[in-house]
Specification:
With 192 residues, the protein is of the alpha+beta class. 26% of the residues lie in helices and 20% in strands.
C-alpha cells in the first residue's frame, strides 16, 4: 500500500476573485469571500477529476515494503525534477536520501522514476513507508493551463455560485458539480 500526502498547497489559485466575478457578471463585493472559497473548492474538484495538480503543488508519495521497478507518481503533471527527492530506510534502519545521480526522471503527465543507467535501487527494510518521494506537480503559471481546463474551472465556479444553497461553503468538495465542466475535462484525465 502506498500513500500520498499534500506537503505544500499552491501559492495561488489559477483564477482570481476579480476574474471569477467578471466571468459571473458580478459587480459588487459582498460575495468576494464566498467566491474565493468556491475557487479553491472548484480547483480541488477539477484536480481530483483530472488526477493532477493545476499549479505547482508539493506532494509526498509513500511506498511500502520495497523499491518498485519504477516509481510512477500518482499526481501529475511532472514538469520539473527540481525539488524532487527520494528518501528510504536502509537495512540498518537509518533514513537515507538517494543521490540524484542514482536515478533518472521522466517528465510529463505521469512522472516516472527509474534507477540511472547501470544502477539499481538500494536494499531497504521491508516496512511501511520505506520509500518516500517528494515532488512538485502542476504548471508554473495559470497561463500555462490548457484553455479547456480553465474553461471547465470557470464553469464549475459558476455552477457552485448559482447553486450555492445546496453547497456547504468552507468544505472541500472532490466531485465536479457541472456536467459541462466534466465534458471539457474528460480528454485530459490521467488513465494510468
Amino acid at each position: 500500500m502506498a500513500g500520498l500526502d499534500l506537503v505544500t498547497a499552491p501559492v495561488s489559485e489559477p483564477v482570481t476573485v476579480a476574474q471569477a466575478k467578471a466571468r459571473l457578471n458580478i459587480d459588487f463585493g459582498d460575495h468576494d469571500t464566498i467566491i474565493g472559497d468556491m475557487i479553491t473548492e472548484s480547483r480541488s474538484a477539477v484536480e481530483g477529476f483530472l488526477k493532477q495538480s493545476l499549479l505547482y503543488t508539493v506532494w509526498k508519495h509513500r511506498i511500502d515494503g520495497y523499491f518498485p521497478r519504477e516509481i510512477r507518481l500518482p499526481v501529475g503533471p511532472l514538469r520539473t525534477a527540481t525539488g524532487l527527492s527520494i528518501e528510504y530506510v536502509d537495512d540498518a534502519g537509518a533514513t537515507q536520501t538517494l543521490a540524484t545521480t542514482e536515478y533518472q526522471v521522466s517528465l510529463g503527465s505521469t512522472g516516472i522514476i527509474r534507477p540511472a543507467y547501470g544502477k539499481t535501487w538500494p536494499t531497504v527494510r521491508s516496512i511501511m513507508d520505506v520509500v518516500s518521494v517528494t515532488f512538485k506537480s502542476g504548471e508554473a503559471l495559470a497561463a500555462d493551463l490548457r484553455p479547456a481546463i480553465l474553461g471547465a474551472l470557470y464553469l464549475e465556479i459558476g455552477n457552485r455560485y448559482a447553486n450555492r444553497e445546496s453547497i456547504v461553503i468552507g468544505t472541500t468538495t472532490s466531485e465536479l458539480s457541472s456536467l459541462s465542466a466534466r465534458n471539457l475535462l474528460t480528454p485530459f484525465v490521467r488513465h494510468d
